[in-house]
UniProtKB/TrEMBL annotation, chain A:
The lineage of its organism: Eukaryota, Viridiplantae, Streptophyta, Embryophyta, Tracheophyta. Belongs to the class-I pyridoxal-phosphate-dependent aminotransferase family. The keyword Cell cycle does not apply. Keywords: Pyridoxal phosphate. This is 1-aminocyclopropane-1-carboxylate synthase. Pfam families: Aminotran_1_2. InterPro entries: Aminotransferase_I/II_large, Ethylene_sulfur-biosynth, NHTrfase_class1_PyrdxlP-BS, PyrdxlP-dep_Trfase, PyrdxlP-dep_Trfase_major, PyrdxlP-dep_Trfase_small. One of its GO terms (molecular function) is transaminase activity. Residues 48-427 form the Aminotransferase class I/classII large domain.
UniProtKB/TrEMBL annotation, chain B:
Gene3D superfamilies: Aspartate Aminotransferase, domain 1, Type I PLP-dependent aspartate aminotransferase-like (Major domain). This is 1-aminocyclopropane-1-carboxylate synthase. It comes from Hibiscus syriacus (Rose of Sharon). It comes from the Eukaryota. Its EC number is 4.4.1.14. Pathway: Alkene biosynthesis; ethylene biosynthesis via S-adenosyl-L-methionine; ethylene from S-adenosyl-L-methionine: step 1/2. InterPro entries: Aminotransferase_I/II_large (IPR004839), Ethylene_sulfur-biosynth (IPR050478), NHTrfase_class1_PyrdxlP-BS (IPR004838), PyrdxlP-dep_Trfase (IPR015424), PyrdxlP-dep_Trfase_major (IPR015421), PyrdxlP-dep_Trfase_small (IPR015422). One of its GO terms (molecular function) is transaminase activity. Keywords: Ethylene biosynthesis, Fruit ripening, Lyase, Pyridoxal phosphate, S-adenosyl-L-methionine. It catalyses: S-adenosyl-L-methionine = 1-aminocyclopropane-1-carboxylate + S-methyl-5'-thioadenosine + H(+). One of its GO terms (biological process) is fruit ripening.
Length: 488, 469
């Protein structure tokens, strides 16, 4: 499209720059899927969507609850007497019963170890809106936040775009299962300071997207201690808190600061029902700050993204039904665990390992053995093959700013069992074909060209997986894989 | 170095203004017919509560839309997952059709040019983010909606400069006022990016004349800047002259292929017309595809709940219903407005003749101790605390003349309105009794006002003739 120089200048920089991040590969995969979506009968050769972190496993439970609770809707005969009051309700404090329900839910998800104050619950337009709002409250244009990588690709937009902030990544590596170390935090902080970048805080996602892991107590305490020392903020995006399906349990930052000497004015939580309950369309975002000024300011800003009162009313009813919630969370965990198991085991059988994880709607798949070379270009090349030939939309690690090429995030909770089978079969075929091709080429030359960054154990891994995939069974993990040795 | 952002500590959110303080007073002592008959009557809230029965009866007849079903099948899952920022296509289609209907089908809208946002609050802010930045300014005719201070400036860093309008010509926009505002912005070293108008006007309750719209189009063409027309009250026009939108003017002047076409943007919402502010349904309509694309991405920060999109798509697609609703709603608004005007007259208070909106722009200049904003505040406090009516002082709307107040009428029953008018009459009467000198002042002012009110009616009569082709 042609536009005159004049007309472009009439729009803001924000409207015309790239900082919305939608030109990243993360969205390219979506586009490939959109133009050729898989369907078991109508389009069995289409692209299977494995790039969308959605929780579709428990809608039957929700639908049953809806049928049994017609008064949760302001539009049914049972609920219509509330219609008018709810339709005019635009108080940015939000419906009390809704906040009560959310506070109870957060408490339960946190293992009943900490109570959340319903008066601190502030609404926002999804976690997307919540993260942006918190940034608007904590930092000014030009300031920066430290973000451990790999991180959710959407942060580029949510944290930076209209706020005009910067992200300083904190490198995390597979050598220690991508743990956030104090050393890495300090290094990133110092590097930023030397470049005259004003760091206002750290933002983490716990459980992690894309890793699917929860933070342990020591890491969390170390984080709190770090931000206290530097007198900067800590924002914890706990959007995946209830997707933990096996131990270790989820620990909310709210629990950590209960037992620590810490300036609470620096601690802020972002939450949402989009992942735990599978309701991204309802746009329920929550800002929970321990800082009164931030809470008050975020509440005023919530005018820009309030939760529809119709939705608040509906969810108030559902979340205050404690029996239902308990049952839902238990069942959801079970189904996520099963799906995770089917996938990760299925991949192991063909020699593909993934980071050991116990949460999230995805796992972090290790495709380093299949890369031509350990570079981002090779990763993207492999990714394009996976999209176009294998027809699976998975997300390349580079779209999460991962510092090591070869990792891919694979979502598993947004499809039915049959699609899972098809996806696994396609991967199996792809890996086997790859193995056959490699048998033909000269492998020794190939290994000599390997990037020296590889650890000794990783090289051994590649050797073994590429030469003898048929020896790998479901019950015998690759002996030298550092991933399998991991205990977290 | 501050621990928090400057946005937290400044007060550009505007919520320390009297507009919001009056609300707080009301919250502390709200009128209730039974439980608190001495409480404060809320007349500061521009809500349409007159037609809920129509919506409720539609819902009773359309149970599927009400309960996540389509043709008897549950579509909850589909809705719960739907987070496409392009919006539910069936809803966008229904919405643009509704907008066209409001404009007498003289203009049509393309659903691909509409962006859904969490209320008009979000729509206006988003447009600012797209069209302007720090160092830029938008011109706004006074008096204007107090919330604009927050919506347009707070997080965007954009400035606003007033286009001063006065009672001498019914607060209409003039070419000289536009030019003066533009110059003022330049003197402040601000780059003017556009003009934002509300049509029908809040707080005036009047529709813009074709003359004003032409002036605006000429102005933005000449200066090569944007025009945002916030038409949130377009469905509340209950009397002639008929509503004329800026899009209609562009079309009539055959400007669809011109440069100015892409610089005109419309904001809409269902909060006033349908009385559904809680549902947070706003929209931006732009003729510029880059603005549409950028605003669409930004809507991620405030999408409309899919549950709500679905419900309203069914409702607005029912054309028989929308036609009936608009007709009945207009009649009720007109009736209630006349009751307010008549009640005010009994208290010797006049107001700007209006044909739209959920409020009247009331002239209490003759009740001021002096022609100052301090006197206006003094009067306002008496009305809130003594008369127990929460109305909005003109200064909170940035009016250049003291003594004007916005009084809402559509958020209460006829009885409550009657009571409010009785209280006002007593109050005015008591001022008269207590203050002789004030009485003299009042008498002279009353003569002036009567003449002036007559002039207003005379003027509007002429406008009417022009607009009714």
């Amino acid at each position: 499209m042609e536009f005159t120089r004049n007309s472009r200048q009439l729009l803001s920089k924000i409207a015309t720059n790239d900082r919305h991040g939608e030109n990243s590969p993360y969205f390219d995969g979506w586009k490939a899927y959109d133009s050729n979506p898989f369907h078991p009968t109508h389009n069995p050769h289409g692209v299977i969507q494995m790039g969308l972190a959605e929780n579709q496993l428990c809608f039957d439970l929700i639908e049953k609850w809806i049928l049994e609770n017609p008064d949760a809707s302001i539009c049914t005969a049972e609920g219509i007497d509330k219609f008018k009051d709810i339709a005019i309700f635009q108080d940015y404090h939000g419906l009390k019963e809704f906040r009560e329900g959310v506070a109870k839910f957060m408490r339960r998800v946190g293992g009943n170890r900490v109570k959340f104050d319903l008066n601190r619950i502030v609404m926002s337009g999804g976690a997307t809106g919540a993260n942006e709002t918190v940034m608007f409250c904590l930092a000014d244009p030009g300031d920066a936040f430290l973000v451990p990588s790999p991180y959710y690709a959407g942060f580029a937009r949510d944290l930076r775009w209209r706020t005009r902030l910067d992200i300083v990544p904190v490198d995390c590596r597979s050598s220690n299962n991508f743990r956030i170390t104090r050393a890495a935090l300090e290094e990133a902080y110092e590097k930023a300071r030397r470049s005259n970048i004003n760091v206002k805080g750290v933002i983490i996602a716990n459980p992690s997207n894309p890793l699917g892991t929860v933070l342990d107590k020591e890491t969390m305490r170390s984080l709190v201690s770090f931000i206290n020392d530097k007198n900067i903020h800590l924002v914890c995006d706990e959007i995946y808190a209830a997707t933990v399906f096996s131990s270790p349990r989820f620990i909310s930052i709210a629990e950590i600061i209960q037992d620590m000497d810490c300036n609470r004015d620096l601690i802020h939580i972002v939450y949402s029902l989009s992942k735990d309950m599978g309701f991204p369309g309802l746009r329920v975002g929550i800002v929970y700050s321990f800082n009164d000024d931030v809470m008050n300011c975020a509440r005023k800003m919530s005018s820009f993204g309030l939760v529809s009162s119709q939705t608040q009313f509906f969810l108030a009813s559902m979340l205050n039904d404690e029996e239902f919630v308990g049952n839902f969370l238990r069942e959801s965990s079970k189904r996520l665990a099963k799906r995770h198991h089917v996938f990760t085991k299925g991949l192991e059988r063909v020699g593909i390992s993934s980071l050991k994880s116990n949460a999230g709607l995805f796992f972090w798949m290790d495709m380093r053995p299949l890369l031509k070379e350990q570079t981002v270009e090779a990763e993207i090349e492999l990714w394009r093959v996976i999209i176009n030939k294998v027809k699976l939309n998975v997300s390349p690690g580079s779209s999460f700013q991962c510092s090591e090429p070869g990792w891919f995030r694979v979502c598993f909770a947004n499809m039915d069992d049959e699609t899972v089978r098809v996806a696994l079969e396609r991967i199996r075929q792809f890996v086997l074909q790859g193995k056959e091709k490699d048998d033909v080429s000269d492998k020794s030359k190939h290994w000599k060209k390997q990037n020296l960054r590889l650890s000794f154990s990783s090289v051994r891994l590649y050797d073994e997986s590429l030469m003898t995939p048929r020896m790998i069974s479901p019950h015998s993990p690759i002996p030298h894989s550092p991933l399998v040795r991991a205990r977290t | 170095m501050g621990m928090l952002s400057r946005k937290v500590t400044c007060n550009s959110h505007g919520q320390d203004s009297s507009y919001f303080l009056g609300w707080q007073e009301y919250e502390n002592n709200p009128y209730d017919e039974v439980k608190n008959p001495q409480g404060i009557i809320q007349m500061g809230l521009a809500e349409n509560q007159l037609s809920f029965d129509l919506l409720e009866s539609w819902l009773a007849k359309n149970p599927d839309a009400a309960s996540f079903r389509r043709e008897g099948q549950s579509i909850f899952k589909e809705l719960a997952l739907f987070q496409d920022y392009h919006g539910l296509p069936v809803f966008k289609k229904a919405l643009v059709d509704f907008m066209a209907e409001i404009r007498g089908n003289k203009v049509t809208f393309d659903p691909n040019h509409i962006v859904l946002t969490a209320g008009a609050t979000s729509a206006n802010e988003t447009l600012m983010f797209c069209l302007a930045e720090q160092g830029d300014a938008f011109l706004l005719p006074t008096p204007y909606y107090p919330g604009f201070d927050r919506d347009l400036k707070w997080r965007t860093g954009v400035e606003t400069v007033p286009i001063q309008c006065t009672s001498s010509n019914r607060f209409q926009i003039t070419a000289s006022a536009l030019e003066e505002a533009y110059q003022q912005a330049q003197r402040k070293n601000l780059r003017v990016k556009g003009v934002l108008v509300t049509n029908p006007s809040n707080p005036l309750g009047t529709t813009m004349t074709r003359n004003e719209l032409d002036l605006l189009v000429n102005f933005i063409t000449d200066k090569e800047i944007h025009l945002i027309s916030d038409e949130i009250y377009s469905g509340t026009v209950f009397n002639s002259p008929a509503f004329v939108s800026v899009m209609e003017v562009l079309k009539d002047r055959k400007l669809e292929k011109s440069e100015v076409w892409e610089r005109v943007h419309t904001v809409y919402s269902l909060s006033k017309d349908l009385g559904l502010p809680g549902f947070r349904v706003g929209a931006i309509y732009s003729n510029d595809p880059i603005v549409v694309a950028a605003a669409t991405k930004m809507s991620s920060f405030g999408l409309v709940s899919s549950q709500t999109q679905y419900l309203l798509s069914a409702m607005l697609s029912d054309k028989k219903f929308t036609k009936e609703y608009m007709s009945k709603n207009h009649k009720r608004l007109q009736k209630q407005q006349s009751k307010l005007v008549a009640g005010l007259e009994k208290a010797d208070i006049g107001c700007l003749e209006s044909n739209a909106g959920l409020f009247c722009w009331v002239d209490m200049r003759h009740l001021l101790r002096s022609d100052t904003f301090e006197a206006e505040m003094e009067l306002w406090k008496r009305i809130v605390y003594d008369v127990k009516l929460n109305i909005s002082p003109g200064s909170s709307c940035h009016c250049s003349e003291p003594g004007w107040f916005r009084v809402c009428f559509a958020n209460m029953s006829e009885d409550t309105l009657k009571l409010a008018m009785q209280r006002l009459k007593s109050f005015v009467g008591s001022i008269t009794v207590n203050d002789q000198s004030h009485q003299e002042l009042k008498n002279s002012r009353r003569k002036f006002r009567t003449k002036w009110v007559f002039r207003l009616s005379f003027l509007s009569f002429h406008d009417r003739e022009q607009d009714e082709r």
